[in-house]
Structure to design on (987 residues):
């Protein structure tokens, strides 16, 4: 060390610290990019995972398929997620994997419509004979002739224009006359709001069903009606298995709540026979295309929370909840419906500032499971002591993150927006402009805007229609809905606005004792905790006010109604904020907490209740305080927090997958026609957008690419073209003519008709005239045992196990060794990372010859040796070293690594010393590859013969790398020579 480092004036000791313990930088590893569906996770953007456990944590377990049941609520687990199994196969042997989860996405130049160009689903508009969506509306009974409260209790969808769902029973207050129709008001026929319904096709009744809203009953509505939309798909389901309808949303949880304070609408506490009246009404409106139930033809969308609002800082009598200051909201990073159904967010430990030097308060954000409860929260993430100070290190956006990506249709790549890196795996933050500008330091989160719901409206009967809002013409023909003509002497239209829903309610006027029935319909909403008194909690201050996803007070069971309440709105209706069709279902604030009626002089712990509007009515704790002999809360928001009431929970809602709920495999090949483009078919656009992401070479660093299960020639060719354009990745594709899975064919199609054939696969690939070393194909499908969840056996496309074998071969040997044969390609031995137990077709020697001649790698099954990948050709027809996978993989590796070494001398002086530094790096690297049997020999030339003075003047270095790749043994010739006994072997 130079003496100049030290400066001493008087005697002393100088102490320095030199850290030489830093670990060397790890060599960057590359793996495949896979495209496909997954249970959950980030969508339509590449995400890199380093292990299978990390993949499961991010994207969920691979789905084996075959699961039915309540598909509407539980999600589509009916078909196999091949790409997830491909990720498992590779990650069990090697790492990393870059995964792109696919969701239905429309082209940016396409407006939302009703055709194949728009993702999503549409049950169809209602016609004079049926079809569309039907809602069961329930009303309080015993007050016919007065205005009575009512609510939507269930929704059925039918994509058959001749199918309707009718309610059967006697007319209200007229037991002598029965009906089976829509638009008729009938009383319940049993406990738990029990009714009878029929599924009808014209005059034909296909099903008679008795149902109620008791989850424990065998007649529970979700047990007796079809809840699997895929069974209504006539293109996939055989006629003898086909259903004409499915049950969608049900709101049994909202019906369990009595009174509006707890989240319910109906006021009757009892649900005995006759205590409730019901009517099935057509869920239509004056726009037969948009803004109607059953039309979810729209792009994929994120889930969001409502805007979090601050406490009231003014006088209580001037408080207007709708005008509350918005602070921030949460938006899920993972588009789709899973987050709406499985996540919620809690704000807790809200603290005002306790220092004049830091006027901003703080709070904690917790991402929780929707199905948990306040007694045992299932915390997925926690961010403590965040604040609303933009200059603070604990600023909410900085701590959680606010970045997001959007697809740029012009540049065909993802563009990033936002300022702060995303720390949360689940949500990002959007702050209001006022908060971003610094805002009022006193602002603290106090509540939130509830999800939007459709506006209230009124139904009526009478000798003349009573209209609400604009006068509308009914889109329903009651004469075709099963009512006798004598019962159609009057019907009424109803609407909340010119663009809102309008329905028809029919009756038999001559039999009813009253002339008019008025029902005020309020749509369901999330349940809100209305009391801190809860036997499941350790104390009242451990209660989270706001949304309560339990089935009731003192319960720990999840209310599945929350899933339906979080669903997106129809096309043309905003899902996350109110518009002309909707209203806030509620506006929650801690400012509306009031004293419990149980509060008394001997109270040591104050119990509070939530009463909406109590702040404005000057009765809440923050408005007037609360006093007792042993406990009290002063009339301020700060006092409320200090006493421990400093937490609330808000839902996430409005996420949408952009998939057709009637499809088992919503991205199946058979949905794509030859003339489809990305602007005419959303399935094509979804695949093309994802595949084009690999054109971004700098941000997507991979060496393999695959879309397992995709066989469409145009799209797989585009995948190969993108890889060839990059020059540093190889595509593994599945070919047409192989096995057709049940998810791609009608359910009654015989397996032998879906088997495929070698000749078809060979001829279809030959017709494509491919000649590229940047692609490879395999045949046939294989049978795999799921080792993660169910243990069932599943047919898999060959690309899945091929990727596993390629990863295994590179890990066990080197990536330039042939990923085939009994040493590295044995599928029975588990070399693919999956348990392969069979092949779709057992190939003969002739079959293998025909496939290999057309550059399709056979997957063979031998009686003694087992199942093995028995070829390693690329799709290059021209004979050269590059018509083999191991050589193409070698070249990809060499180009990538030597290019990286070359980048290290960019902007250095173009002189011999710099050249020598480059060759000094590359030659040892090539020697290493040679010593590991990747090269037979090589030569690197970088001198005046390659980099001439003219090139130096052009700021260019030119080097030549000559290589002789080592080739794999694929053919062995043996001569067995028989000789005479007396012959000498030396001759």
């Amino acid at each position: 060390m130079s003496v100049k480092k030290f400066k001493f004036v008087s005697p002393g000791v100088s102490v320095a610290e030199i850290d030489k313990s830093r670990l060397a930088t790890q060599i960057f590893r590359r793996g495949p990019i896979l495209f496909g569906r997954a249970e959950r996770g980030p969508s339509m953007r590449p995400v890199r995972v380093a292990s299978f456990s990390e993949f499961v944590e991010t994207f969920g377990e691979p789905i084996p398929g075959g699961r039915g049941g309540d598909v509407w609520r539980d999600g589509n687990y009916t078909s196999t997620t091949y790409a997830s199994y491909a990720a498992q196969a590779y990650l069990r042997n090697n790492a990393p994997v870059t995964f792109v989860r696919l969701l239905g996405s429309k082209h940016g130049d396409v407006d939302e419509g009703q055709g194949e160009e728009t993702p999503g689903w549409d049950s169809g508009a209602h016609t004079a004979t049926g079809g569309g969506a039907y809602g069961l509306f329930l009303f309080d009974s015993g007050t016919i002739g007065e205005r009575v409260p009512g609510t939507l209790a269930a929704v059925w969808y039918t994509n058959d224009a001749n199918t309707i769902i009718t309610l059967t029973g006697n007319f209200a207050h007229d037991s002598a006359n029965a009906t089976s129709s829509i638009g008729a008001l009938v009383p319940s026929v049993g406990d738990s709001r029990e009714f009878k319904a029929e599924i009808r096709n014209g005059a034909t009744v296909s099903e008679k069903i008795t149902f109620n809203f008791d989850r424990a009953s065998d007649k529970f509505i979700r047990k007796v009606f079809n809840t699997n939309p895929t069974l209504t798909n006539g293109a996939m389901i055989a006629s003898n298995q086909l259903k004409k309808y499915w049950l969608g949303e049900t709101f049994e949880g909202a019906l369990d709540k009595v009174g509006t304070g707890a989240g319910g609408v109906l006021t009757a506490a009892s649900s005995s026979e006759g205590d409730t009246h019901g009517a099935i009404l057509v869920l239509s409106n004056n726009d037969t295309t948009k803004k109607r139930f059953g039309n979810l033809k729209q792009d994929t969308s994120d889930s969001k929370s409502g805007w979090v609002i601050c406490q009231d800082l003014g006088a209580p009598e001037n408080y207007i909840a709708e005008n509350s200051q918005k602070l921030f909201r949460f938006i899920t990073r993972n588009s789709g419906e899973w987050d709406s159904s499985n996540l919620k967010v809690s704000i807790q430990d809200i603290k005002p500032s306790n220092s004049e030097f830091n006027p901003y308060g703080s709070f904690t954000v917790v991402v929780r499971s929707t199905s948990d409860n306040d007694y045992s929260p299932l915390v997925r993430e926690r961010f403590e002591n965040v604040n609303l100070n933009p200059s603070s290190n604990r600023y909410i956006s900085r701590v959680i993150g606010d970045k997001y990506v959007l697809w740029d249709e012009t540049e065909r790549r993802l563009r990033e927006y936002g300022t702060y890196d995303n720390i949360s795996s689940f949500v990002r933050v959007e702050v209001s402009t006022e908060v971003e500008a610094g805002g009022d330091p006193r602002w603290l989160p106090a509540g939130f805007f509830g999800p939007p719901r459709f506006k209230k409206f009124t139904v009526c009967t009478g000798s003349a229609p009573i209209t609400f809002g604009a006068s509308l013409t009914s889109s329903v023909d009651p004469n075709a809905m099963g009512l006798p003509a004598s019962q159609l002497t009057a019907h009424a239209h109803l609407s909340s606005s010119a663009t809102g829903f309008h329905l028809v309610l029919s009756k038999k006027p001559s039999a009813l004792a009253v002339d008019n029935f008025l029902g005020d319909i309020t749509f369901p909403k999330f349940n809100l905790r209305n009391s801190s008194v809860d036997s499941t909690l350790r104390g009242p201050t451990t209660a989270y006010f706001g949304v309560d996803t339990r089935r009731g007070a003192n319960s720990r069971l999840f209310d599945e109604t929350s899933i339906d309440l979080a669903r997106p709105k129809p096309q043309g209706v905003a899902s996350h904020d109110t518009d002309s069709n909707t209203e806030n279902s509620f506006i929650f604030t801690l400012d509306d907490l009031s004293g419990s009626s149980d509060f008394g002089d001997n109270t040591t712990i104050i119990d509070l209740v939530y009463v909406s509007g109590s702040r404005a009515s000057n009765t809440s704790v923050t408005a007037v305080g609360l006093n007792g002999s042993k406990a009290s809360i002063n009339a301020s928001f700060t006092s409320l927090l200090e006493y421990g009431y400093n937490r609330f929970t808000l839902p996430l809602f409005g996420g949408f997958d952009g998939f057709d709920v009637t499809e088992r495999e919503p991205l199946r090949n058979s949905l794509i026609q030859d003339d489809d483009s990305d602007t005419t078919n959303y399935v094509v656009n979804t695949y093309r957008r994802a595949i084009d992401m690999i054109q971004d070479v700098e941000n997507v660093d991979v060496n393999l690419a695959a879309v397992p299960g995709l066989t469409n020639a145009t799209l797989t060719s585009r995948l190969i073209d993108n890889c060839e354009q990059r020059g540093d990745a190889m595509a593994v594709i599945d070919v047409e003519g192989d096995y057709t899975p049940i998810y791609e064919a009608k359910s009654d199609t015989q397996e032998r008709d879906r088997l495929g054939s070698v000749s078809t696969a060979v001829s279809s690939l030959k017709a494509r005239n491919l000649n590229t070393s940047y692609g490879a194909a395999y045949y046939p499908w294989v049978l795999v045992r799921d080792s993660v969840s169910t243990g069932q056996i599943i047919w898999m496309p060959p690309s899945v196990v091929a990727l596993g074998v390629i990863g295994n071969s590179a890990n066990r040997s080197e990536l330039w060794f042939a990923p085939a044969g009994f040493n590295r390609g044995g599928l029975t031995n588990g070399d693919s990372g999956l348990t392969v137990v069979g092949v779709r077709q057992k190939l003969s020697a002739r079959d293998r010859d025909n496939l290999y001649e057309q550059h399709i790698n056979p997957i063979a099954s031998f009686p003694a040796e087992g199942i093995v990948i028995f070829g390693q050709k690329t799709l290059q027809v021209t004979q050269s070293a590059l018509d083999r996978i191991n050589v193409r993989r070698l070249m990809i590796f060499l180009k990538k690594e030597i290019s990286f070494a070359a980048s290290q001398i960019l902007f250095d002086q173009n002189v011999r010393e710099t050249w020598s530094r480059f060759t000094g790096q590359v030659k040892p690297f090539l020697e290493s590859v040679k010593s590991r049997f990747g090269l037979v020999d090589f030569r690197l030339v970088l001198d005046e013969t390659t980099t001439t003075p003219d090139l130096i003047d052009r700021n260019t270095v030119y080097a030549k790398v000559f290589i002789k790749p080592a080739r794999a043994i694929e053919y062995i010739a043996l001569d067995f020579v028989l000789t005479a006994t007396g012959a000498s072997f030396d001759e």
Observations:
- The first strand starts at residue 32 and ends at 36.
- The chain has a mean pLDDT of 87.
- Residues 912-987 form one domain.
- The longest helix spans residues 912-931.
